[in-house]
Every structure is written in structure tokens, then in C-alpha cells.
Amino acid sequence: MGIISRAFKNIGKNWYRFGLFFVTTAFWLFFAWRATGFLNSFNIFTLLRFASVQVMVGFAQMIALSAAEMDLSVGAIGAGVAMFVGALMQLLGVPYPLAILLGMLLGATAGFVNGILVVKTKINSFVITLATSSMFSGIMFITTKAKAFTVLPQGFVDLSRVWTFGLPISPLVWIMLVVAIVLYFVYSATSLGRKILAVGANRRAAEMSGLRSSKIRITVFVLVGIVAGMAGIMDAARMESAGPIIGTEWLLTSFAVPAIGGTSISGGNVVVFGTVLGGILTGTITNGVLLMNVSNFFVNFFLGLILLLAVGFDRLQKAYRERTSVK
Amino acid sequence: MKSGKSTFILLTLITVMAVLLSACGGAATQPAPTATSAPTTQLKPTATAQTGKPNFSKIRVAIVPGGPHPYFLPMKPGLADAVKDFGLGESVFKSPAEWKLDAQNQLIHSLMAQGYNAFGIFPGDANASNAIVNEMVGQGIPVVALGGCLNQPTKTSFCLATDVAQSAYLGTKALIKALGGKGKIVHFTGFLVDPNTQKRINAVKKAVAETNGAVQLVETIADVDSQEAADQKINAYLAAHGKETDGIITTAYVPSTVAATALRNLGDKRIKMVGIDDDPIVLNAIRDGYLVGTMVQNPYGQAYVGAQVLAYLKTGCQPKADAPHYIDSGTLLVTKDNVSTYKEEVKTLTKRISKTFVDKYLSCSK
Amino acid sequence: MTKRKSDLTKGRGRSAFQKFVSSDWGRLLVIDVVAVAIMSMVSKEYLSTFNLFVITRDVSTMILIGFSQAIVLAIGQMNLSLGAIGGLVAVTSGGLMAMWGWPIWLAVLVGLLIGVLAGYLNGMLIVWTGINSFIITVATNSIFLGLNLGMTHAKPFYNISATVKAFGQARFGFFPYMGVVTIILIVLMVILLKYVVFGRQILATGGNWNAAEISGVPVKRSVVLAHIISGFMAAVAGMLWMSQLGSAQPMIGVSWLLPSFAIPIIGGVALTGGGASIGGIVLAAFLLSIIQSALVHLQVDPYYVQFLLGLLILSAVVLNELGGRRRRA
């Protein structure tokens, strides 16, 4: 009960954060008006399903950012875990819930390796994970020869395919929302979350106040590994294929989604539901621009412009809010 | 001061937004029938006229490649010629702006929503694209794969493509012949995540193995699909092993152009090379004697025959029970002898496939 | 200052060599030299004129890509659009030459101008809106790439001037002409950051925004200037790549993102701003190029390349760090 009332209090205090929500809604209305087929239930279904994986990728990086770290290996972990899970199901016939669990364990292991390396060598996590990213995908290439696993059990594929509650919403979307709620809980109501944010805000100060920062940072990388692995598994379900292509395009997404959502790149704060909106907003814009039949070679141009506008409006009303609150 | 700044930003944003909207609006209204087009439904076989020349005016074919790539450009005239020759309705060739599976999927969704009712696609991913094919076929939209196949099980009716393994094999054979049956060769190819890359690596190895050791494969270099990486790795290779290398086989577009440029820069006509595709850089290198030849594929014919087949499929024809799923769209070795005439050869080849396709592979209920 | 003093007291009696190794870029230099020495023993062609040319030419552009990111890192920001700027500049200047037969100097000038304008746009947007540089440049990256593809439809310009093509291949002995451009820019960067007021203001801005502002540094101007320099460096790199490839390829720059960060960071530039080690950047660019060419020389199986690339980078940075730590211990 305490959490819920706290959540409401948070909403009341930070209502201006909902600017992103309004911007996203505005884009939905606009595309519904101008883009043929946007409100087609089939389009909504695929849009939300795609966005849910984007959001998960964003969550993975968001966790790293919250501790002022970066993890460039999220894509490599995602691909490796997805292919591992695919191999377990296809080659060994492991039931899919167990395979997913083992996959998350592999993600945690990869994250642990990152964490240990970052803490022990004291080298910037950017450089470490740049190298381990190459190594993780290297191990994947060596063991699988980059061959995709496509004979996946029905139950696993259904995770992306079926409609839930008669709505055009894939189970993947609900999984993402559950993860969002868990993360919100972790950051707002557990000591672990507070410690992560303290380390992210100022590591030296956190250490001086008695926190064991190395343990916390390793935990952070383990969490990143688990979430990145989940994103990989979800992407495999979405594409009905566990292949090496997963994760190859995640790098920018992973930073952009939380950043648009208001998470600071330099650490110390997170906006969990901002990340959710960030993923949905970028998914919506990509989808809508394509539907509007813009000359295909200019799609990128308009994507950039709209992203700028969306974020601009959000920040502008925030600035307005801050100014009026001062008065 | 501060409010002045905010007002300024707001005005800028509004101006940009206005420009943007007018630009989008203009673009959106250009294909006129879009807004009023009929929803996608299975056209009844009755649409087939009795005269023997079927009426395809309600067939609206969309051809969607995997991303922007010069390889796909001949598909546009191929589709246009098919629209003319077979009397199809308004059709479109539209490329995703980036090589991203999701960009392609979203583009396909939007074209479906705009009423295109038959699709030829280059699968953005040989496995993962099956998901969207299932969705399309589920809505009564026939799909053929063009330029690359999807892995089985797939609901695409046909796959019209170059046999990549065969092309790599024949190219290596041509190189070995040019070398007089012996020597050391190197293989440059594309992204490892592309399943075709594995087929190409194996096909080159197979052709080399058939020489019983007379030809040796010094090295296989992959992941050279970006211009910069190709230039770095190919020149590094030439520096390391250029002297002992007699031949180069390339089986991907970018390394082909980059290796051709590298040989030209070295002024080296000793090393023989067989490339792939018909980028002007490659064709000029053949004319000037830096390349033995190049393996040309047939994207024109893939689009032409693909559109034709889609029209028949949409009007009630079915693939025959014994029809193969994969149809070779043909591959051609272009050398100095036919470098100026090969485009005609490609069209002749296309007409040949087109003429016999319906009788050979389709069963149509009249 | 204090660090140097403590070094002096601790390092009493150390040889000049030890001091050199413990300097900022000395360790990287040692690692580079050792790597080249190992490779020259393993591969007899490694020290051949042509191979040295190939490596030096690659490094020439990689250094500029590193600079382009480093100058923005120095003010505590990022530029994710540098690859798109490089590509846009390459196709516009190439297109002006190929389609309208513009003279080289004019096409190059326009190219540089576009780079500067793109950087100016990035900087102004960041300063005006107060939005994080990461988001702004993600968006402008998309805009610049979209302009590039919209103009070219992904088709390269082949008929660029023969002089430009020849420039990319020309060399004195092993040293590429392109390297001369890079050396000039290295010298300019050193002068800028050490002796020119606004260069030092850039570093001050990155070191501590508030302190810089209070002490009268025009912070916003520094931000815009840093982005202009970044755009300029990316523009030069884009045109050098056009010259090296012999055609204006629209996809130039797409693969620059990771090396643009890796080079300065391995070279000792902090992500949080306030510094830029020119020597470190140059040596880090060499290190990456040496590792990449080693994998080709050693005829590594393509499926093992990724793994070994990661392992070698990791080993190099760990060695570098351990050397540094012994100094501090």
C-alpha cells in the first residue's frame, strides 16, 4: 500500500514528467488522423510489440546509466542469450520456461564478467564492454557458426503472436510492463535501488558514506545482463527465430530510449516509466513516418526532425512549468 | 530574457512543424489512389477474363527490398515492364531507408494498409521475415521472395533468386580456369550474420577442394560490408599476402568494388579476380583488364517474373503440387567479351523464364 | 600539479626511460612498439613499405575521427552525428565535382563549410534548447543521414576528380599524402588546446561548467566552438575517405561511431570532459589499426575474428592500465 501511495505522491510531485506522455499522445492522434492504417488493430499490435522490445533494450542501458556506467555489450548479450535459449529448445528439447530461465542465468553470467572486469581493472566500463561485446559475439559466432535456430516450440512463439484479453496486445507487452513495475519498485522502494543511485550520483561520496561500491556495481552489471538477455529472448519470440541478427541494432536505441525518457546519461537518476514512453514514442514515430508515405530515402530525415520536435516540446513545457513554479 | 528564449524556441518549433506537416502532407497525397483504395481482400478468380488474357487491373504489386542497395535498382524497371506487359494495377517499388528488419516490416505493414495486395520481398532476415510473411498470407496476400529465399517452413509461394552458392561456386570455377587450374586464392565476403555468407564460404571451399590441392585458399575474410572496413582489410591482406596470391574471389557487393579499386591502384594485372554484381567500378575494371569477370545476378528478372507470378497467384492460381519453391533467376558471367551486351542477355534470360513459368509451375482454375 | 610533485618525490632516482613509460602516452607508445615488433617477427611483410603505408593511411583518418569526438568529450558532451556529417560532406563535395565539374578547391571548401555548419547547428541546438547533446545529435544524425540518402538515393558518385583519387593513393616512401593533412591538424589541435584562449576555455568548460561560468568563460560559445571543430574534423575525414575509396560513397561514416569513442577513451580522454590527450589519441588510433591488420596478417578464421579482436583490445587496455597503476602505487 505504501508503495502505491508513494507512487501517487510521486506523480503529483512530478506531473510535468508527463509531458512525454502528452507528446506521445499527440503523435498518436496526429498519425491516426494523417497516416492511413495507423489505427488498424494489426498495426497497433505490431507497433506495441516492437516497442516493448525497444523498451527492454532501453531498460538494460538505463540500469547501467543509473550507476553512471555504460554497457556496450547489451546487443551481444541479447544475441548470445537468444541463441543459447534457441539451441536449448531446438537441439535439447528443453521446455521453454526452463530454457528462458537458463538464458537469463547466462545473461547474468555475462553481466558478472563485465562487472568483475570493470571493478578489478578500474578501466572505464565503456572500453571494457566495447571489448567484451566483441568477445561475446565472437563466442557466439564460434559456437553456432552464426546459424539461426528456427524450430521453436509453439508456446514460445505464442509469447509474441497471440492477442491477450481480446486486445491487440502481445504478451511481450505485458512482460515489459511487469519488468517496468519491478524496476520502479527496485529504484523507489528498496535499499539496493537507492544504493545504485547513490553510487551513480557520486561514487566517491557513496564510498565515503560506507557503501561498498564495487559490490553494487557488479550487481548493476548482472542486472543489465539479465535484462539484456530477456530483451534478446523477447526479440527471438517476436521474430520467431533465434539468430545472430538480434542485437546488431541495439546500441543507439539502448541509449536513446532512456535518454528521451529523461534518464540522465551521467548517472544518478532514472525515470523508469519515461523509458517506457521513450520506447513507445520512437516506435510510434518510425511507424507513423513510414505510414505517411514520405519518400523512402527521406524517412531518416523526418525521423530526426520529429524526434527533435518531440523532445523539444517536452523540454519546453518542462521549462515553462519550472518558470511558473518559481513565480 | 529567459521567456524571450523560450518564445523563440517555441516559434522555431512551430515553424519547423508547419514545414514538416506540409511536406508530409504533400508526400502523402502524391499516390492518389492511396486514400480511397479498397481494403485487402482476396480477389475472386472471376476477375480472370475469358479471353485468355487475364484482367490484372486490380492487382497492386509492391516490391520491397531489404534496404537501400544498388543491387535492387534494376527491380524498378523490371516491375514497370511487368505492369505494362501484363496490365497490372498501380504498383510500387519501395525500399526501406535502412537495412533494418524492423524498418522493412513497418514499411510492409504500411503498404498493406494502403491497399497493395501482392508482395515481392527481399527477406530482411531469412528466418525472422517468415513472421511477417505469415501475417500477409493470413490476410490473403500472396508473397514471393525475390533476390533471397526464406528458410523453410515458409509461406512464400516461390523464391526467385540467384542461387548464391551456385554463383559463388561458378565464380570460383571461372577464377580457377583463368589461373590455369592452379595457384593461391583469397575470398572476400560479407557479414557473418548473413546466412548467405556461410553458403558462399562453403561453395568457394568446395570449388577449391575439387582441384585436389592444385588451388589453395589462403584466407577467407568476412564482415567487409562497410566501405571503410573493406578498404582496410583488403589492403591489409594485399600487403600481407599480395605477393603470394594469384587470384581473388569476392562474393559480396562492397568488397567487390573495393578490391577492384585496390587492384587498379596497385596497377596489378598479375592477380586475377572474379567479382560479383555490376557496379560501374567493377564493369570498368573488367573493360580495363583488371578483372577477369563478374557474376551478374538478375534483379530485373526477379521483379518482372515476380510481379507476373503474383498476379496469377492473386487471381486464384496455385503453385503445382510438384513445383519447386526455389526458382533460379539466372546468373551470368560477365567478361570483357560481353560487358557491353550483357544487359540484353539478362532481358532475354528473363523473357525465357517468364514465358514458361505459368505453364510449368502454376495450376489455374478457370 | 600536486600529482607531479608526488611523482617526483616517489620517483627519485628513476631513469628517464621509467619516467617516459609512466607518462600519459608513454605506455601506449610502448604497447604499440611491442605489438609492431611481435608482428614483424611473425609476418615477414609486416614492415614492408606497402603495409606501413596501409596502416598509416588508415590511422590518418582514424585520428581525425578520434579528434572529432574528443573535442566534444572535452566539454563533457558527445557527438553521435559525426559519421553522418562525414558521409554528407563526402557526397556533397563529391557530387559537386562529379555532377557539375566544380574545381577541387571549391568543392573541398563547400565540404568544409557543410561540416562547420553541421557542427554549428549541433552546438546551437544544444545551447538553445538545453537538451542533452546525446539526444540532439542522435536526431541530427538521422537528419544528416536522411539528407544524404535523399540526395543520392544511396547511389555513389563515381566520377570525382582524378586528382582527388590520386591523392588518396599517393605516398612519399611509405608515408601517405593524406597523413600530411592529419599532421597539420594534429599541430593545430595542440596549438589550439595549449596556447589559444578559446581552446583553453573549451577545456575549462568541460572541467567544471559552473566554475568556468563564474570565472567568466563564455561557456555557451565554447560549446558551439567545440561542435564546430568536431564537424570540421568529421568533414575532413569524410573527404579523405572519399579520396581513399576513389568515389563518393553515401555509406561513408556509418561505421565510425564505435571507433570515434574507442580511440579517445583508450587514449586517456575522460568521458566526463575536461581534457584531451592529443598524443594518446594518435597512439590509440595506431593501436586499433595494428590490432585489426594483425588479424588479417595472421590469417585468422573468420568466425574467430570478433573474439580475438575483443580479447586483444582488452589485453592492450589492461596492460596500459596496469602500467599506470604501478606508477601510482
CA-based shape of chain A: globular
CATH topology-level fold name of chain C: ABC transporter involved in vitamin B12 uptake, BtuC
Provide the gyration radius of chain C in Å: 21 Å
Distance between the termini of chain C: 18 Å
Under CATH, the topology of chain A can be stated as ABC transporter involved in vitamin B12 uptake, BtuC
Which class best fits the helix and strand makeup of chain C? mainly alpha
CATH architecture of chain A: Orthogonal Bundle
Q: How many domains is the backbone of chain A divided into?
A: 1
Order of helices and strands of chain C: HHHHHHHHEEHHHHHHH
Would you write up a description of this structure?
The complex is a heterotrimer of chains A (327), B (366) and C (329). With 327 residues, chain A is mostly helical. Helices cover 76% and strands 0% of the residues of chain A. Chain A contains 14 helices and no strands. In chain A, helix 3 (41-66) runs parallel beside helix 8, helix 3 (41-66) packs antiparallel against helix 11 and helix 5 packs antiparallel against helix 11 (213-239). Chain B is elongated, with a radius of gyration of 24 Å. In chain B, strand 9 (272-276), helix 9 and strand 10 form a beta-alpha-beta unit. Helix content of chain B is 45%, strand content 16%. In chain B, strands 2-1-3-4-5-12 form a six-stranded parallel β-sheet, sandwiched between helices. Chain B contains eleven helices and 14 strands. Chain C has one domain: ABC transporter involved in vitamin B12 uptake, BtuC (Orthogonal Bundle), CATH 1.10.3470. Chain C has a two-stranded antiparallel ribbon with strand order 1-2. In chain C, a hairpin with a 2-residue loop joins strand 1 and strand 2 (175-176). Residues 1-12 of chain C have low confidence and may be disordered.
